[in-house]
Specification:
CATH class: Alpha Beta
Distance between the termini: 10 Å
Helix content: 40-55%
Number of strands: 8
Structural class: alpha/beta
Bound molecules: BIS(adenosine)-5'-pentaphosphate
CATH architecture: 3-Layer(aba) Sandwich
Shape: globular
CATH superfamily: P-loop containing nucleotide triphosphate hydrolases
Strand content: 15-25%
Order of helices and strands: EHEHHHEHEHEEEHHEH
Largest sheet: 5 strands, parallel
Number of domains: 1
Amino acid sequence: MKLIFLGPPGAGKGTLALRAVDILKVQQISTGSIFRAAVAAGSPLGLKVKAIMDAGKLVDDETTIALVKERLAMDDVQKGYILDGFPRTIPQAEALASFSTVDKVVNFDIPDSGVLERLGGRRVCRKCGYNFHVIFNKPSKEGICDTCGGEIYTREDDKPEAIQKRLEVYRAQTEPLIDFYRKKGLLVDIDARPLVDEIVIEFKKVLGV
Ligand code: AP5
């Protein structure tokens, strides 16, 4: 199954994707994670995107589309994938349609208050990228990742000014994709407010898996 996870920053796309890859036996492709790994490695791509990401803005379409096109040409995603964080603009969605088909677009529905609560409390493992939360998903030992023992930090773009910018960018550039995919009959809505286990149940129900 080929899925897109669409929704505002902090809606829980990455968290549900981790559960959904187990259910569907497909790969998660997170453009945000790919960019963060490039920043951590100090590669030319990382140097190019770091300031843009820290400010909560979008990386340019040309760079992002080329990266996803290359990833979707790989063998391990021919039967299915979850695109988490792509597309984020109409030109990205149009480009995707030129090189891949999509079965469903899962729209994570959550008010801004929920976004602020989730992003304000998110903590991330520097080594494996696992997402913790200071209230909803605490690590057993403060500052240390349960999964890999890595150091836990706060993402630069989870600081208040960057969160506001990301929400503005989402409204202006990404939200129009809801109508874009609804008109194509591909959109399914998920209430992203409940805790993860409840969302998993709804996800399975709406997708019939
Ligand atoms: P990206 O990493 O994709 O950021 P995002 O879309 O803003 O999404 P997040 O990772 O912030 O949130 P999420 O919805 O995955 O929530 P999560 O599961 O972590 O992109 C980062 C940047 O990269 C962009 O700003 C841009 O610069 C660049 N970029 C990426 N893709 C791009 C593209 N296509 N084009 C251009 N630029 C691009 O959950 C959040 C928190 O809530 C966590 O702490 C989690 O533990 C907690 N939580 C999750 N679900 C629940 C729940 N149900 N109940 C309670 N707590 C929960």
